[in-house]
Amino acid sequence: MIEFQHVSKAYANDVYALRDVSLSIGDGELVFLAGPSGAGKSTLLRMIAGLEKPSSGTVMMNGQNISKLKAGSLPYLRRKLGLILQGQGLLLDRSVLANVMLPMIVVGESVSEAETRARAALDRLNMLDKANASPLALSGGEQQRVAIARAIVNRPQIILADEPSAYLDRDNTIIVINALKAFQRSGVTCIISSHDEQFLDQANRVIYLSKGEVKDSWTSSVSSTNS
Ligand code: ADP
Ligand code: ADP
């Protein structure tokens, strides 16, 4: 369970990225953050990941105030999260497989276990045949699918995806949507920012942000379990 209580984020020049945001997201929900560019979507996602601190208000995760976490505790928080954030590209000096293995190696998993899980994760995204390729040899859509495999390889409880369909064509967008829905069906909370209508159609919950404020929040009657 994620809870924002009167969260604001102000920057030095008095720009508010978020203004008095209160919301809660239950375990296993598939939530879309909608709204125009500059609305505060990235800031909200980065706060859940502990990458930004609120100027005021609190962000709770499973009863813990994550804005008060010491730097040393952040790695434990991050292990629960699969992050697909802007500007976190693949490492170009190693193979697709090595990229996806990396989060497991970082937490001290054995190389053989990391490889097994990385291959399974790539298989889920239909990218196993490119395991040995360089990321440079992949299309934008393929790179995004590898980034998702890397985000889910540690079996996170929560997936945070910032505009995961940016620069993707329709077919690749559908692959990405279906992959995220499949994770939600297996109990993972998914929070996805997008202004893509195709995503909104699949939402069982939409939170609409504008100028840093929650303007609307609705729960869809459309079941997210049909794919
Ligand atoms: P979105 O993801 O919806 O496009 P962002 O969360 O990236 O929105 O940005 C929300 C607002 O906060 C924007 O007006 C943006 O310019 C501003 N902003 C974001 N990061 C910074 C920063 N580091 N310094 C100053 N302003 C920022
Ligand atoms: P396996 O369970 O044999 O690893 P799966 O096809 O069930 O294979 O999963 C593929 C990969 O997706 C897993 O290795 C795992 O790292 C990742 N994954 C992330 N979250 C989940 C989840 N909730 N359920 C199953 N797999 C998940």
UniProtKB/TrEMBL annotation:
Domain ABC transporter: 2-227
CDD domains, sorted: ABC_MJ0796_LolCDE_FtsE
Domain of life: Bacteria
A GO term for molecular function: ATP binding
Signal peptide: none
Pfam families: ABC_tran
Keywords assigned: ATP-binding, Cell membrane, Membrane, Nucleotide-binding, Transport
Name by which UniProt lists this protein: ATP-binding cassette domain-containing protein
Organism: Undibacterium flavidum
